[in-house]
Amino acid sequence: MTLAHDIHASVNAVHRAAPGRSPGIAIVLGSGWDAIADQVASPVDLPYQHLPAFPLPGVAGHAGTLRLGQLAGCEVALLRGRKHAYESGDAGAMKGAIRTLAGIGCHTVVLTNAAGSLVTTMRPGSLMLISDHLNIVQRTPLHDEPGADRFVDMANAYDAALRERALQAAAATGIALHQGTYAWVLGPQFETPAEIRMLQAMGAQAVGMSTVPETILARHAGLKVLGLSMLTNMGCGMEAQGLSHAHTLDTAASTAETAARLLAAVLPCLVPAQAA
Ligand code: HPA
Fold first, then answer.
1. Are 79 and 99 in contact (CB under 8 A)?
2. Is residue 275 predicted with pLDDT exceeding 70?
């Protein structure tokens, strides 16, 4: 089957499972961000197994379910689990999922992740709005796209107007929200101390193993992007304590409640103003 066929079948599966629902906002829930799923009203769950364009995620803590429903007064689609490029080497692992979101009518996707902090004052357990990214991996999910539209303009990849509104919503809710550039590394191994120094010198404030391919896919599909990082640890070598996936998950668990509050506060301001 072609990807286009799988996307079509996935869009139809969503329409069949949740007739009349039209989520405008999709949220890809990364490590630590899943707690918000419990707050969804009138949830409808579709396992990724029933959505042929969706990949089966392989990382513990990622469920692999699309949940539709209402959150903070908005119709949303939550992706509980993503596939990372490090699982297969494929930067296009989320291509079918992101295009399905566009197909069901989403205008905006919120991409969330866990990341390492590269700035001493941005502590583990704090949150960062992604203002831009560094595609250190220099891979693309668009390498097999035939059209001229593959030359995607990335100038406003992390929509400036949405970022401004998200910062205001965070401030109004009393949640500290840093802002910075996210560097995508392939992983799954963590960085060396020398790599962390390189990323700092290149101008990154956070480092992680996801999000960037999805941002490229979303912009190619015409979706607006808001990116949010949960800083779970300091970059390797910045502190005496070593890094581990288990430690990352521990910090993520203790930050989950704040992350969910931030998402609930931010969502309403992502809805486009009604035309007069
Ligand atoms: N590096 C890369 N990815 C990450 C990190 C990190 O330090 N923390 C959480 N995801």
1. no
2. no
Contact 232, 209 (CB under 8 A): no
Instruction: Check pocket membership of 23 for ligand 1, CB cut-off 6 A.
Output: no
CB distance 209 to ligand 1 below 6 Å: yes
6 three-class SS: helix
Mean pLDDT estimate for the chain: 93
Query: What are the tokens at 246?
Result: 């288990």
DSSP state of 205: S
Residue to probe by mutation, ligand 1, list 126, 130, 200, 209, most atoms within 8 Å of CB? 209
Specify the CATH number of the domain 3-275: 3.40.50.1580
Q: Is 124 in the pocket of ligand 1 (CB under 6 A)?
A: no
- Whether 9 contacts 104, CB under 8 Å: no
Q: What is the pTM of this model?
A: 0.95
Minimal-distance CA residue to ligand 1 atom 10:
115
274 pLDDT more than 60 = no
pLDDT of residue 276: 42
218 close to ligand 1 (CB < 6 Angstrom): no
Contact by Cβ (8 Å): 184, 133: yes
The C-alpha atoms of residue 230 and residue 210 are separated, in whole angstroms, by 12
Tell whether ligand 1 has an atom less than 6 A from the beta carbon of residue 233.
yes
SS3 216: helix
**For residue 65, is it left (φ>0), alpha (ψ between -120 and 50) or beta?**
beta
Nearest C-alpha to atom 7 of ligand 1 is from which residue?
Answer: 116
